[in-house]
Amino acid sequence: MKTISIQSGLALVALLMATPLVAEEEPRLLAWEDLLPEGTPEFVIDHSQPMDQVQRLFDDYQAASSGVVDELNNQNVKIPGFVVPLDINGSAVSSFLLVPYFGACIHLPPPPPNQIVYVTFEEPVELESIWEPFWVTGTMITETHRSNVGEASYTLRGEILEIYEY
Q1: Measuring CA to CA, how many Å separate 17 from each of 5, 11, 25, 130, 159?
Q2: 116 vs 53, which has greater pLDDT?
Q3: Number of other CB atoms surrounding residue 153 within 10 Å
Q4: CA-CA distance, 100 to 65, in Å (whole number)?
Q5: Does an H or E element contain 149, and which?
Q6: For 68-93, how does the pLDDT look when each residue is reduced to its tens digit (9 = 90+)?
Q7: Which residues partner with 82 through β-bridges?
Q8: Strand ranges (E), the chain
Q9: C-alpha distances in angstroms, 77 versus 31, 73, 127, 139, 140?
Q10: How many CB atoms lie within 10 A of CB 7?
Q11: Higher pLDDT, 127 or 20
Q12: Beta strand pairing call for 117-126 and 154-163
């Protein structure tokens, strides 16, 4: 019968604890179209139309476009977008809305709910600029969040925020 010394046994335990049992999965790379359930109609804002007409069309579209893609729930994802800060402390932000294009949520109408992602970070992250697009990586949840800026059909528990490289 073979015996293992205490030092060898401790070294083996330390090695096992340091080695992940399951390889960490690469995040699923998302495009904004991936957040739209199948059959969602496309909506293009025509700012040359009178605002009341744009708003009426948008209200109809908004009602039809808050649905989510259920398979994204609890998925590790990476998605690019622009940041609309919500909770700011100096240059750090702990929550924000991620939107597909610059200026969304600032002008009216805002993007539909399934084209807005509410992002939270456990620890605030440094926000270098709101003018640049970012990649956000984390766990996507199909959970609605409402704020005075807009309604998001998705919530993302952020883990990584990095500048989008073209």
Answers
A1: 18, 10, 19, 40, 22
A2: 116
A3: 22
A4: 15
A5: none
A6: 999 999 999 999 999 999 998 888 99
A7: 99
A8: 28-29, 75-89, 92-99, 117-126, 134-141, 145-146, 151-152, 154-163
A9: 10, 10, 20, 6, 7
A10: 8
A11: 127
A12: parallel
